[in-house]
Amino acid sequence: MKNRKLKEKDALIVILDYLTEVLLNSKDGVFKMIKKRGKDIQQASKSAAGNNYQALIAYALNRNIEAGNLPKNLVVALKPKKHPLVEEYTSIKVGKEIQKPDIDVLIYQEKPKTPLIVCSCKTSLRERAGQTYRWKLLLELATADPKHLQENPDCPINKFKIEYKYERKIYVAIIIADLYNEINQPQQRGMFSFFDLAYVADYKKGKILETVKPLSKIIQELNKIYS
Questions:
Q1: At what angle do helices 41-66 and 27-36 cross, to 10 degrees?
Q2: Which DSSP category does 191 fall into?
Q3: β-bridge partners, 74
Q4: For residue 82, how many C-alpha atoms fall within 13 Å in the half-sphere facing its CB?
Q5: Which of 33, 84, 191, 209 is 20 to 30 A from 165 (CA-CA)?
Q6: What CA–CA distance (Å, rounded) separates 196 from 78?
Q7: Looking at the chain, which runs of residues are DSSP E strands?
Q8: Per the confidence metrics, is the pTM higher than 0.85?
Q9: Mind listing the pLDDT tens digit for each residue in 159-187?
């Protein structure tokens, strides 16, 4: 990318495939800050990497909104766990318990009944990615055809007393930095098929799997979803 001359509008799309590189290039500066504060470097650096990566994703998408690559009325919210839309539309009741996804970034429009995109942004699949895809499976159960429930009293929805307020389409996305080269490991590959959208923010890995796209492709897909 260094030798390519791009207009800012185009560069903001291309940079999405380089966010893993941006994150890695910031590592030395992060280590210095952690050491200065006297914290455990190994543990604090993992936490900082995760938080910085999530912030990079949200910032890059918001810059694409500002540049006109995405709809102006699109909202990208960082760390939205207590956002009213998250409370209202991602809470699935299982018996007496409430299950919610692990969510790092929320993409939405203020207009009623427009889709919500729940994003799990992970530096590694060792993090809580499994929690997100299990919630996705629960969502698929909770939104099953009501006729099916009437005809199948032994369905897990009836068995586990699953209740869900289904008024807005929800897409579940995973956006990974893949710092530890995990996306092509057999035990991980199958997991990606559970997500509606799956991206990697590393330009070197965008063609490894059919189920995982380069992050730059999210611009086209968001425009399609919110057209």
A1: 130
A2: G
A3: 109
A4: 0
A5: 191
A6: 20
A7: 74-78, 92-94, 97-99, 105-109, 116-122, 162-164, 170-176, 197-200, 213-214
A8: yes
A9: 888 888 888 999 999 999 998 888 888 87
